[in-house]
Specification:
Blueprint (H helix, E strand, L loop, with lengths): L1 H17 L3 H20 L5 H17 L7 H21 L9 H18 L4 H16 L3 H12 L4 H8 L3 H18 L4 H7 L2
Helix pairs in contact: 1-2, 2-3, 2-4, 3-4, 4-5, 4-10, 7-9, 8-9
Length: about 200
Amino acid sequence: MGGYSNLNQNNFDLVLFRLGDENEFKTIFKLNYNPIVGFCRQFIPDKDKAKSLAQEAFIKLWRNKGKVKTINGIRAFLYTAAKSECLNYLRSEKNKAHYLNNKIQEREDSLNREVLASFNFDSLEVLELKELIQKSIDELPEKCKQVFIKSRLEGKKNQEIAEEMGIAIKSVEANMTRALKILRSKLSDFLTLLIIFGL
């Protein structure tokens, strides 16, 4: 009965949060703020900056509260948002002199490992997902595949991709949207991991 009651309470808390209950958001903030700051500080040594990036993650959570489907999804969203904030900071203009692209990639890999570790995912599950992602990318329609690889794996902007491929920016956007839709459909069993990997 205890487990059932706890499940019902979690569902009730989630409903309140999605409806914009500020007290519920404060509870989530108190429970998760320090862990998120600690997560950011592993990659951004400046304590104040790490706190600022963590706060941005919570702001994103609040703005997207209606998209969170489960209690565990709240934590997944926060870690993923914090990862994005850290990477954006490392990639910002004032930091380019300090962090070369390969260093940024190393940081991104470390961030992904840290997020995965926080959820205790089995390493075989992660390996299985990576293999499935690669297979799914290989099976994309050719133009979708080219756009996806240039955008997500090579980090190129839409304008640059359009010029390289000799197509319109709108075509780049349409092919990227189609590629993501196909990948999310094929990889739906790994939803939480897909959020972390940014698909």
